[in-house]
Amino acid sequence: MPEVFVTTSDQLPEGGRATVRAGKHEIGVIRAKGKLHAFLNLCPHQGGPVCAGLMIHKVEEIIAEDHTYQGMRFNEDVLHIVCPWHGWEFDIETGKCAGDGAVGLRRFTAVERDANVYVIV
Ligand code: FES
């Protein structure tokens, strides 16, 4: 499978992102939680540039044992990327939509070698 150069490693720090065109695809590569994540930059909702979105930890509702609502909190273990068009959220690790796990981003493999980042297409 061909590799496409994305950027140099120093241009993609933690929390950084870069996009690259590979044939008819635009692919976003994000460094988050110490790993590289690569997705087709096309939201499954209406085609927004999802890889340009805000990254935010998953918001969870806190329900007590007596089933009373106790508010909300961020889950620091789960990071989401939020599509800038209408706010659909996707788990950065899996690409699955937070609201519907049957929907997700198309993933690619990103690799780092000799201080460069490549995506396999
Ligand atoms: S296009 Fe991404 S949320 Fe609508």
From TrEMBL:
Boundaries of every Rieske domain copy = 3-119
Cofactor names from the entry are: [2Fe-2S] cluster
Q: Which domain of life is it from?
A: Bacteria
A Pfam family cross-referenced in the UniProt record is Rieske
- Keyword Mitochondrion present in the record's keywords: the answer is no
Does the keyword rRNA-binding belong to this entry?
A: no
What InterPro entries has UniProt attached to this entry?
A: Rieske_2Fe-2S, Rieske_2Fe-2S_sf
A GO MF annotation of the entry reads: metal ion binding
Keywords, in A-Z order: 2Fe-2S, Iron, Iron-sulfur, Metal-binding
The Swiss-Prot or TrEMBL record describes its family as follows: Belongs to the bacterial ring-hydroxylating dioxygenase ferredoxin component family.
Output the PANTHER family linked to this UniProt entry.
FERREDOXIN-RELATED, RIESKE DOMAIN-CONTAINING PROTEIN
Q: What is the protein's given name? A: Rieske (2Fe-2S) protein
Which lineage? Bacteria, Pseudomonadati, Pseudomonadota, Alphaproteobacteria, Hyphomicrobiales
